[in-house]
Amino acid sequence: MIPIRDTTPSKSVPIVNNTIIGINVVFFLVQLAHGQAQDHFVYLYGLVPAKFTVPQVSAYFSLGQKILSLFTFMFLHGGFIHLIGNMWSLFIFGDNVEDRLGSARYIVFYLLCGLASGLIHLLFNAHSNIPTIGASGAIAGVMGAYFILYPGSRILTLIPIVFIPWFVEIPAFFFLGLWFVLQLFNAAGSSGQAGGIAWWAHIGGFVCGILFLKLFDRIPSAGISQRMRPERKHSHRFQVVKTNRGREEANLYGTLIITQYEALVGARKLITVPWGIQNRLFNVIVPQGIEDGQVLRLKGIGRPRGDGTRGDMMLKIKIQHV
Prior knowledge:
The protein is α/β, with parallel strands linked by helices. Helices cover 47% and strands 19% of the residues. It is found in: Membrane.
């Protein structure tokens, strides 16, 4: 299952979340720049439990290097696929959690989740000399928070069946709950890091994300976040449109959400529409100067009529005021 996006839009630009993604990309480029010395770089800045527990290994590292690695490991990755997979998950789930916590609390939350996941991995792999790297533990914490905050949200998911892309909407509580259960099964059936994957770091990050969310929700916001985060000019380019129709009508009716800025300058949207047991994708061009309540007609993509023609899709424009 590959998550494409969620159906809960963020109300403002997730500055911290986007910055974290950028930092991860920069760290990865620095990592690649070390070429053949990359293994040494990863061992130095990755999380190696033996640095803390095995005297023969620990002697080679200063206290500062050990503490630093508890944070730097979460910004390193094992390859392009590892990086892209982690950053895509953070992009999908992180903006909404930042929306709820605010930018200042979110950065502390993210780092604490990453740190906690690393310590839990260290606990279950105390004498391992294998470096663990990746943002997965911190992102698992973000997913744990999302699981509590937005259980009713839906995750548009790509399930590839042979060569056929199958898009389905899965409730967030089910998608994330299933993900967590799979981590438990994998951890139970392995030594904790089989195949280079730190399963207990994922589990620990997810659980700590839920616990930290409860803690951070009790900490009042200082109001810094509202000054840091500008309003979002663009709504999500990719939207899920719920449609309805009369019992005997071929036309479909739905709502397309855009921002005031998009209403002024126009926009291109990629929408997914429930179609039987799967979803279909359509491109929509929103013209400049469109007004709230106006209807866009997409010809020929409604339900079939008895004469062999198809009805239209009528999209009502809703301008989001944030």
